[in-house]
């Protein structure tokens, strides 16, 4: 009981630091997921509909990015750009690395979903005179979206977890904040547990959001 | 004759060019850059008390942080004209070599391998391992711990060299390894260990926070030198920082240094002897 009071007291002292860390984690994740998804849709389209050269370029991009550990991407975007004169701050470099990583996954997910749609649908759309934009917007995208959602939720949750790696380059996100608090009061187990719980809450929120969109886009049966 | 004249002209031109290049280099010293910028950028961490950590007020503080303030004071006569870049221990050297920070002060142990990558300043602290026991316990000091031989259990942070490290001071002691700093203190509190072996700075800080409950066994070993580090090849900047640190430890800023030392390590420093400079004794 005494221990619990001690812990709660320390949480109260650290409430602002924790909230700030949570805010940074949420904003990094949101920015990375949004930018990564937009970029990823472009990559996916390039992978499926690009000409031979474009396909080759996007294939190389996804394979290299997906095959690289996120930590390496984070360090690369923080250090490599500064050697060519573009000095990114830790937050910007971190968001860039996560967005790029996210885009390679989303691109690949979209490619799979688009290629799973029978070719006959594209042909039918052409036959009734739809442009490519109309075909994609009205025929392919709605179907692909249903395919994508579950794996997209998975990728988004991965991004939230990968944001912890930004602590290495000094972004004061939730994990680094937690470590700062622990270095002051030595309550490591309790505060790591709390951080884990907060990460779970964020990912649970993403999962619920995904479920909601799934319901909204489901084909009425 | 003509050839000699030409050779002379070339030599003259080369020397003018080279001295021009030397001037250019001096003009772009990090020192001038920092002065023009108006504030100093120091790389340090935020998760190691009493070196660099966030207090309950969420402010960065500690001995490393104070070194940053001392250098800022020397530069701008204002200890607060300093920006701290938060970096992990792994980022200490890359952040210097890529120019993300002007200087790193982050309990950096001076080693030959590191000195090939960055330029170390003069040391500002000597770290070593110490032994801490509960006040009023079975053993009073290091001599008694050593005499007790294998009856003594020492709690230590898990490390490949932990066993050898303890045995260097207490050859027969039983060594218990734990994987977090709080656990070695818990082992001592619960009586599972008779002493903890850890950095003297950690012991000093822990004893400040828990006044009267613990004693230092009074023996230190395993010396390590802590120094700040700057980018290689900028002697001007290195000289400046060295001067600032030197005067903090032996000159006009001694009181600031001593106050910081007392705050984080709990020990009073005697002022340097007045008269003949201590450095040349």
Structural key phrases:
heterodimer, A: MetI-like fold, 84% helix, flat, B: 281 residues, alpha/beta, D-Maltodextrin-Binding Protein, domain 2, five-stranded mixed beta sheet, three-stranded parallel beta sheet
What is shown here, in short?
The complex is a heterodimer of chains A (221) and B (281). Chain A is mainly alpha-helical and 221 residues long.
Structural description of this entry:
The complex is a heterodimer of chains A (221) and B (281). Chain A contains nine helices and no strands. Chain A has helices at 2-13, 15-49, 52-66, 70-83, 90-116, 119-127, 132-162, 174-185, 188-217. In chain A, helix 2 packs across helix 5 (90-116) and helix 2 (15-49) packs antiparallel against helix 8. Chain B is α/β, with parallel strands linked by helices and 281 residues long. Chain B has two domains: 27-126 and 225-280, 3-Layer(aba) Sandwich (D-Maltodextrin-Binding Protein, domain 2), CATH 3.40.190.10; 128-224, Periplasmic binding protein-like II (D-Maltodextrin-Binding Protein, domain 2, 3-Layer(aba) Sandwich), CATH 3.40.190. Chain B is built from eleven helices and eleven strands. Chain B has helices spanning 2-27, 30-37, 63-76, 92-97, 112-115, 142-147, 162-169, 181-190, 200-209, 235-250, 254-265; strands spanning 40-44, 47-48, 52-54, 60-61, 82-86, 103-104, 119-134, 153-157, 174-178, 195-199, 214-230. In chain B, the strands form three sheets. Chain B has a five-stranded mixed beta sheet with strand order 9-8-10-7-11, with helices on both faces. Classes of the chains: A mainly alpha (221), B alpha/beta (281). Chain A binds chain B through residues 13-14, 16-17, 75, 79, 82-83, 87, 90, 167-172, 176, 179-184, 186-188, and chain B through 46-49, 53-56, 58, 85-88, 90-91, 94, 98-100, 180-182, 185.
